[in-house]
Amino acid sequence: MSATTGTGRQFGEGPLSRVASFVYTLLVVELLLVATMLPGLAVLIVLDRDASNVPLAAACALPFGPALSAALYALHHRRQDLTELAPAPAFWRGYRANAVGVLKIWAPWLAFVTVVGVNLTHLSVAGIPRWWAVLLVVVAVVATLCAVNALVITSLFTFRAVDVARLACYFLVRTPSVALGNAGLLAVAATVTVLSSEAVLALAGSLLALALLRTSQPMTTLVREQFTA
To answer: Which structural domain range is residue 221 located in?
Structure first.
């Protein structure tokens, strides 16, 4: 009787408990994600979708990078045991640890896409030929996919900024399935934003972060095996 009891399932280890812990973690991370994005999100929601507001929209998006990074960190370190849940401390730990490193990637990327966006919305004024506009879009997409790789790497590992940039570019070629999956996520995010609003996308932020972790798993596995002790 005692042996059976000792090897029996403990509280918090069953399938229902795992589902409950998963949902709870997603909800807590979502609330914290929205809270840390709120300073920029509140302005972005009321901002007119006009070409002249592209720089202001980019400035509003500045808090999104550290917030998404913290969500990635918290979800990556989530526990399945219902008795050991701590998503909020994990979120804040990831936010404090990665905010500076993420901004070193996020801010230059925002500045770059802002320049591209302004040029694309003022083609006739800038005198840019159509073929150059297409090239700008291609470069912006590649830069965005590299920035996503860098965001994931910075969120889960500790490297110098220059090494993060190298790894992000390297894995863009080394793991094409990751680039394809992330491109699909970006397309979905852009579609949701265009058809609804930034607020709707923000309310699905934890699900987006979870999907990003899943699509980036081949890359993070290789980083852990080949570039960490």
So the answer is: 12-227
| Neighbouring residues of 115: CB distance < 8 A, sequence distance ≥ 6 | none
Q: Looking at the domain assignment, is residue 145 inside a domain?
A: yes
Tens digit of each residue's pLDDT (9 = 90 or more) over 3-51: 444 445 554 566 787 888 889 999 999 999 999 999 999 999 998 888 8
List, for residues 156-175, the tens digit of each pLDDT value: 999 999 999 999 999 999 99
Which residue matches tokens 């526990």?
A: 79
Number of domains the chain is built from = 1
Q: pTM above the 0.85 mark?
A: yes
Tell me, yes or no, whether 59 lies in a domain.
yes
8 A C-beta contact, residue 98 and residue 77: no
